[in-house]
Design brief:
By secondary structure, the protein is α+β, with helices and mostly antiparallel strands. The chain contains 6 helices and 16 strands. The protein has one domain.
């Protein structure tokens, strides 16, 4: 029994140590997926963000009057530490498919009843968390909307009861997603290797990242992820759509109209600390 407890403790310690500390409250890790994809590296990139240390921002071309840019270009232009898709967008290449507001600017005023998740930040007051991913089955969307200046309605992947809510399908593609862990950290997740959404959810729920809720941001070539902190710079781009041949034709990042970004705070508020990490830096993945 004592030996088993020692092995379990050692495994837990190794799992913590494999996180790479990019900066205070910012950690990244690349996981080998337990389910191998037909294409690519089968790696899942996870960026863990402590909202006590980082402010979340919604940047859209509809509000800023700029053109669509890659996640890296958004980050460079607006001094973001990291950027990821702010959900899918409509045929006009500007309007979010779900409700989206940022302070007084409304990108899409219509609540989509089937989209049961929302990423919210910029609270009206200190009575609520600085940033959270909500599930409308457990929280009232209208109440939440009144308490936050920024709300992005997106498609739920993992419910507030910790269930995979996507049916299995045959189509597979690169995926960008967002999640919240049980400590209140926000997770940016990315897989260039193609998976069905159902399988991707099963994979991330099996990882040692304590997912509480998760939601889908984008898939295929448009899926994007970028982070830069101190000496670390990582760019991930989607390359696989429902047709795997897409990867042969598209090797560069796709311009996107809306991103969720983070910037480091000067005076972080109190929040549970994230564990230390020592894993080697990740590298840019384009294939």
């Amino acid at each position: 029994m004592a030996f088993a407890m020692f092995v379990a403790a050692a495994a837990a310690s190794a799992a913590v140590d494999n996180w790479k500390r990019l900066d205070e409250g910012l950690y990244m890790r690349e996981f080998e997926s337990p389910q191998k994809s037909d294409m690519g590296s089968s790696k899942i990139t996870v960026l863990r963000i402590n909202p006590a240390n980082y402010q979340f921002k919604l940047l859209t071309i509809s509000e800023l009057g700029t053109k669509a840019m890659t996640a890296k270009e958004w980050a460079k232009k607006y001094n973001l530490t990291a950027a990821i898709n702010a959900g899918m967008y409509q045929a006009d290449s500007a309007t979010s498919v779900g409700y989206m507001k940022n302070f007084s600017h409304v990108n899409n005023p219509k609540l989509a009843k089937s989209y049961r998740a929302a990423m919210v930040f910029n609270p009206v007051d200190s009575s609520v968390a600085e940033a959270q991913l909500i599930d409308s089955d457990c929280q009232n969307m209208d109440d939440i909307r009144a308490k936050y200046n920024t709300l992005i309605q997106i498609i739920r992947m993992v419910s507030c009861t910790n269930k995979n809510v996507w049916a299995q399908g045959q189509a597979a593609w690169s995926i960008a997603a967002i999640a919240m862990d049980k400590s209140g950290n926000i997770l940016f997740l990315f897989s260039r290797s193609p998976y069905s959404v159902h399988d991707f959810i099963e994979i991330i729920m099996s990882l040692p990242i304590s997912i509480s809720t998760a939601a889908y941001l984008e898939g295929g070539r448009q899926a994007s992820f970028y982070v830069t902190a101190k000496d670390n710079e990582v760019e991930k781009i989607g390359g696989y759509g429902t047709n795997y041949d897409d990867d042969n034709a598209f090797q560069s990042a796709w311009p996107i109209p809306n991103v969720i970004g983070i910037v480091k705070k000067r005076t972080p508020a109190a929040m549970p600390a994230t564990p230390p990490a020592t894993a080697p830096a990740a590298v840019k993945e384009t294939k």
